[in-house]
């Protein structure tokens, strides 16, 4: 296995590509904006999850049926809610930031975990400081990578308990507050809704919802997204998209290169972005199966947590939050 990340002195590639693309296709700005329909999807998915949870309680489902339902159905729903947590983090649902904050928290109701506000803080830093060990919470700890190594069973356990890793990684970051007012509000709201769900529907309902969330970020096909996005499968390429069929159920979350280039383009326009400028994306390595990717990562001894590219210096290009009224900062060519 590797003993460290791959090191690059190059700047964030997305700033360069977005600048070039806007120069060639200024109409990309028309794809940027807000998608208020996302709020309806959030409400619908949340209602569906609560209905399933209530049905499992009313049918006195055995524990195995609850867990099987969470894995086969609930994980897909709650992973889709993570897509909308992601959309809210980039203020891509409503124009007013406060409404994006609120709807991000609403996504957490059926997930049972207060993650939206903290995710917003560290995910935006991930974009501006991609691949910087002290600032990018998407990178593994050194001790984490060495502990897991390339053992298939350790990688399996790592995926199964990935939610715990996600909770502790922000502690390493030198940017961003792990606790602020919005995080406090987020925690308070989800504690209250969890209590109400357990009281009104029963504790089993809450177990189903939480299990759905744990599976959705763990040892599950949709959980492979955490590997898909930035684990190196082509030398020198830092970001990867997934173009498989599950994008239809997961609201195009697989279009990750497109998203990093223009994160003010909401999920419903990412396919249009790729179609508008195919020469920028068709030549990049991409994935077509989350299930296949997960199995390859687990059982291929060449795969480990050091399979990432890390910047040896900070990125001078911080203006990656493109809107219809802004232009990307100049970038040095390779």
Please tell me about this protein's structure.
The chain is mostly helical. The chain has one domain. The protein is 51% helix and 3% strand. The chain is built from 14 helices and 4 strands. The strands form 2 sheets. It has a two-stranded parallel ribbon. Strands 2-3 form a two-stranded parallel sheet. α3 packs across α5. It is globular, with a radius of gyration of 20 Å. The two termini are 29 Å apart.
- Residue share in β-strands: under 5%
Query: What's the N-to-C terminus distance?
Result: 29 Å
Number of DSSP strand runs: 4
Number of domains: 1
Question: Segments where pLDDT lies below 50 for 5+ residues?
Answer: 315-334
- Share of residues in helices: 40-55%
Written as H for each helix and E for each strand, in order along the chain, the element string is EHHHHHHHHHHHEHHEHE
Write down the overall geometry.
globular
Which sheet architecture does the biggest sheet show?
Answer: 2 strands, parallel
Q: Give the radius of gyration.
A: 20 Å
Strand order of the largest sheet: 1-4
Structural class: mainly alpha
